[in-house]
Amino acid sequence: MRNERDESGAAGQGGAPVLTLLQAYLAKASLPASGRLPPERALAQELGVSRAELRQALAALERDGQLWRHVGKGTFLGSRPLAAIGGVAELAARSSLEEVRQARLVLEPQLAALAARHATPRQHAALRAALRDGCAPGQSWRGFEGQDARLHREIAAAAGNLALLHLFDQLATLRRTLTWDRQRLRPGGPPPDHPSFAEHARIVGAIVEGDAEGASAAMAGHVGHVHRLIEAEPPRTAP
Fold this sequence. Notes:
Layout: H1 18-28, H2 40-47, H3 51-63, E1 67-70, E2 74-77, H4 85-92, H5 97-118, H6 121-134, H7 141-158, H8 162-179, H9 195-208, H10 212-232
């Protein structure tokens, strides 16, 4: 009989499951703007686990959409982009958050409207799961940002347009590059009443109900609010 136990639960330092150790590391690590993790050998040594155990934990997070891997390039935090990371990094050096805000307001409300028209029951379930996980209590900011990226990409995928999904991936990677190391007004993680939780719920609710106009309006309001919050945060400080 097949053993159903998740092999990523093998014990590492202090008997903690490897997956738990990896998630704790990702919540606290200072990664580069690209989200690239250290090489497997170095990361395994830091966590005190074998490379085989680490790969199982990485595979579990990859299946959940929290990271992606590219042979020869490395492992990156976040959803797998269709655009090349290097090209977006170059664009980030010439872009601003205001340009990103404008681009998001052009693209994401339309994606939400298309998702309301075309999403399948299976995609509705994926949206609900992403919404639930994104509202989980006790998250770090890094964890919340990963779940936020997951939800927005599920919406983009539910729109059913591969060309627009490609554009979304480029824009999402650009946004994460520009905001990765920003400071937060509240340390630790999002509060239980973080406004994005309710805003995400309104977007998903409208999509599931097939309300294209409502989904578009909810997404536009959410994107605008998020960028106002970013503007209110303290500026980055030099290391």
